Structure formats: C-alpha cells, structure tokens
Hints:
Elements: E1 2-16, E2 22-23, E3 26-46, E4 51-52, E5 66-67, E6 94-96, E7 100-118, E8 126-127, E9 130-150, E10 155-156, E11 170-171, E12 198-200, E13 204-222
Parallel strand pairs: 1-7, 2-8, 3-9, 4-10, 5-11, 6-12, 7-13
Amino acid sequence: MSAAAAALLCYALVVSFAFAAINSSSFTVENSSSGSITSTTTASSDTGGNVATGSVGGAGGAGGAVTAGTGSFNNGDATGGNGGNGGNSDAGGAVTSGDATATAGTNNSLNDVELEIDATGVSGNINSSSFNATSSSSGAITDTTRARARTGANTATGSTGGTGGTGGPVTAGAGSNNNGGASAGTGGSGGFGGLGGTVITGNANSTATSSNTMNRLRLRIIL
C-alpha cells in the first residue's frame, strides 16, 4: 500500500519599471507571509495473522468384554478383547502468504517566496538609486508520516495422534469359581502425530519519506 501527500504555500511577486530614467530614487519591496501546514500521511499493509492448525487422529475402539453370568466355573482361561490402536494424524494445514509492502511519502512547502525586480524597461540611465527588498515569513509545519508493514502474529499448531482403545474387562457374575485364569484385554497403542501446521510468510517492507521546506526566499534583480 502506498500513500503520498503534498502541501504548498508559495508566493511570486514581480515588480517592473518603465521609465525614461531613474535618478536619486529609492524603491522598497516588502513581503510578509505566515501560515501553517498540518500533514498526516499513513500507509499500512499486513500479511500476518494467519493460522494453520494440525490434524487429530481417530481414537481406537474399545476391546470386547468377558462377562460371566450366573452359575459356576464360567470363563475359565477367557481373555478380554484388545483395544484398537489409535489412528495416525496426517500433516496439518499450510499457509503461504505474499509480501507486505507499505510506502508513505510527504512533501510540504510553506512560505516559498520569489521576489523579482525588473528594471529592463528603463530606457535611460539608473543613477544614485537604491532597491530594497525585504521579506518576513513565519509559520509552522507539523508533519507525521508513517509506513507500517506487518507479517507477524501467525500461529501454527501441532498434530495429535489418536488415543488408543481400552482393553476389554473381565466381569464375574453370581456363582462360584468363575473366570479361573481369565485375563483382561490390553489397551491399544496411541496413533502417531503427523507434521504440524506450517506458516510461510513473505517479506515485510516499509518505506517512509518526508520533505519539508519553510520560509524560503528567492530574490532576483534585473537591470
């Protein structure tokens, strides 16, 4: 993004003479100027604030249960089912942003005065004469020029593997000598986490220029 501003306050004063001759004369040219310029120029660009989240693997299933009902001598050497393994997570999301460029420029000129005394129209001589030119200028320039480019505040989160399933339980019901030698199933393994989210940002470039000129006087006398 680019922004530019210019403020000018200029004066041009030309004094010309057309006489046959100028003798023992005094010429005075006076200029008085004042003013103020308040300039604010701002450019901002942003390619940040991106979020790339990771993935989550699925959870493993629970193992089958062994349950004894009523009676005696149930489930000898029975084994509960094993829990399923958790799923593996895949790679997370990816964000690639472009460049952020901000350019701001300001050119201010206050009380730029040009005085010109032109005596080329005098056909005779110019003797014992004086030319006086005075200029009084005052003022103030308040200039604020800002350029800001941002490519930060990005977030990339990791991936999470799935949770392993729980092993199957062994439960005895009413009766005697149930579940002799029975064992519960083992829990499944958790899944592997994949590559987390990826954020690749471009370059952030900012350029600010400011030029201020105040109370400049240019005097030209042509004889």
